[in-house]
């Protein structure tokens, strides 16, 4: 069963990405779900969702965890029982997790689609993108910014946080493959490192909270 990509972000932080190609029967082998997660999966009408759900358990196994090592808080944010940090994402046939022993982390995978142009004004000052060469470049950049803000939202996990008003992603070029961002919310400022990569028409972005940030 293929893991698509593993990235060692630092000695204490790793990203794992799965390309879901296997049938559900194959993915369910050797996966033991807690009763909570089994009932969650039983409630999924879409086979694609169930396959994604199971593939995430395989990614967790790559990182040395079982389903029973995971729990969710009232906000729906996942946590590991050993105190390490985890974030989870899936988009179409790709799933991903980031696990860190030292840093609060968030991850997001998005398909690059032109419909992002229609919602861009809701999450970023769209005027800043006028200098880009063409529509494809704008779509790619907007997808990175959206993914960054999703990743940060997953770390921060507070209701009322606005992508447009409270999260600022510093400008970057595609070649940078990284940038920084800050959240200013209720008078508190926190800072984050953002890294991204693109593959097969998808964008993966992950965020780490900066020490003291």
Describe the fold and architecture.
The chain has 213 residues and is of the alpha+beta class. The chain folds into 2 domains: 100 residues, 4'-phosphopantetheinyl transferase domain (Ribosomal Protein L22, Chain A, Alpha-Beta Complex); 103 residues, no CATH class. Helix content is 27%, strand content 34%. The chain has 6 helices and 11 strands. It has a 5-stranded antiparallel beta sheet. The longest helix is centred in the last third of the chain and has 22 residues. It is globular and about 50 Å long. It starts with a strand and ends with a strand. The model has no long low-confidence stretch (mean pLDDT 93).
Short description:
It is globular and about 50 Å long.
Q: Which spans have pLDDT < 50 for at least 5 consecutive residues?
A: none
Say how many strands there are: 11
Helix content: 25-40%
Helix- and strand-based class?
alpha+beta
Structure annotation, total helices: 6
Biggest sheet: strands, sense, closure? 5 strands, antiparallel
Q: Averaged pLDDT, please?
A: 93
The SSE string, one letter per element, is: EEHHHEEEEEHHHEEEE
Based on Cα principal axes, name the global outline.
globular
Total number of domains: 2
Q: How many whole angstroms does the radius of gyration measure? A: 17 Å
- CA distance, first residue to last residue: 38 Å
Q: Which range does the strand content fall in?
A: 25-35%
**Widest sheet: strand order?**
7-11-10-9-8
